[in-house]
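Subject: for your reference before the review

Hello V.,

The reviewers asked for a structural picture of the protein, and I figured it would be easier to keep everything in one thread rather than splitting it across files. Below is the amino acid sequence we used in the manuscript, unchanged from the supplementary table.
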Amino acid sequence: MRYKALPASARTSTPIAPPPARDPWRDRLATLAILVIVPLLVLPLMVASGASPSIRVTGKTVPGGVITVTGRSFPAREPIAVRWDGTATLGSTTVDRNGHFRVGVTVPSGATPGAHTVSAVRLGATASLAVSTEVLATTDVVVADPAPARGDGASPSPTPTPTPTPAPTPTPTPTPTPTPTPAPTSASTATPASTPTAAPTAATVTPQPTAAPTATPKPTAAPTATPPPPPAPGDYLIMSRAELLARPTSGTAWAALKAVADGAWATPSLADQNNKADVQALAGALVYARTGDVAYRTRVVGALERLWTGPWATDMLALVRQTGGWVLAADLVGYREPGFLAWLAAARTRVVDDHSRWTTLSFTAGNSSNNYGTFALTALIAIDRFLGDGAGVARDWAIFRGYGDGSWTFQPTADYAAAWNCAGYRAIESLHCTTPGGLDQNGAPVEDASRGGYPSPHGGYVTEAMQGYVVQALLLHRAGYDAWGVNDRQVLRVAEFAVRFGIWNYHSVGYHAAWLVNDAYGVALPTRPAGYGRTFGFTDWLFG
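And here is what came back from the structure prediction:
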């Protein structure tokens, strides 16, 4: 109600007393305090905001040397990549809230002696997934000549080096040396045999430490580089270059592959377990490898750079499902950026803390035989093959073989239904496992079958596990191991189990498995257009 609408009696009120007289000195002191304190608070902010980003490099600036790049006065919480001479990405990190960062990187092995530029760039992305960068700070470094001339008077080290003192010592040494020489020879002799067979034998000892999978690779220290080498130049992890170039560039399967390669791709994300950017990039990589059209390679490289220079995984299932696909894509386009290789090597043991039990890729692969574990092992095999880590591949083989013969100790999950095993835990049930009631459990992937209870296996989870088995077998077979034949053809037995229980081709993400199984074993299990799922796909074009 407005004041004028009130009756006169209501509008009268007691006169308001005048405010007390203000003390002019108190007001002056308050104003003075404000004038002094505010500039003191604001000035540092003005100075900080006005400071330009800068970087400093410490460490060994020699080819292959490790250097530390420290940054100051950068925009807070910005993703930053460190580049060498403006092109090669050495590593990435995120600026802290104070505008600082510190990251260790490796000088390119091909760096030439002389001056080079190290730069810190802000990362971003375009709609085409190519990485766009804004240079925020640079500094110059000088790469020393790793091999100075021996006659250089400035290097006194050569003088003591040829000291003949060691000569007498080596004199007796050569005599015993020939004796051990056969030992390495026999080791290497055993090694070729180990490519298909003996390496697995050495790995037989490996499963012993499975309680702590981290320690497992120890027995493989002797044949470190001996188990299967990286593919020969021009060959790929999944098949030879000649085989891939023989694939058709017409037909339904090719059209489906090319449609994915030409279509929109998801933004790479290791925080989303259903993200399939890796397999979409794989489509682009396959088209590039078949046609040589560099536009596809450029797009794949952009996606790869966005992946490894971006945020680290926050979802373990996302990491295990996607990493293998990214490696296969990189292999097909020949992407071997040093920073990416370092990222992959570290990814095997880098912690993802969203799961209470499975926190690293390597541990998960050796700890569980459910689909978490099968995807983790798939990713691990792909990384180890791509990096040429023979000892790693030998351990991978031991885990894979352990699925069916019990030689590797897996930790059962809470879902495990013991009824799926006839005699003790075995990740893939043995050939002769039939219950008294006549239920043929041969080939049951027990962990994922258990998700549906007993005796009704869960089709969705069995499909997920199967996607891991087939790619594992393909990569290990290409490495020289009898992955398709081991344990009475364990991969085929899992497939036939799914057929018997009516869960074969249960979900579209697993349609690609059938084409691989049929090609590997010469069988004719039911197929559907492959499409793509987790880690892999397009097998109707590759193997149909």
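For the response letter, the relevant points are probably these. The two ends are 85 Å apart (CA to CA). The CA atoms of residues 10 and 301 lie 82 Å apart.

Happy to draft the paragraph if you're swamped.

O.
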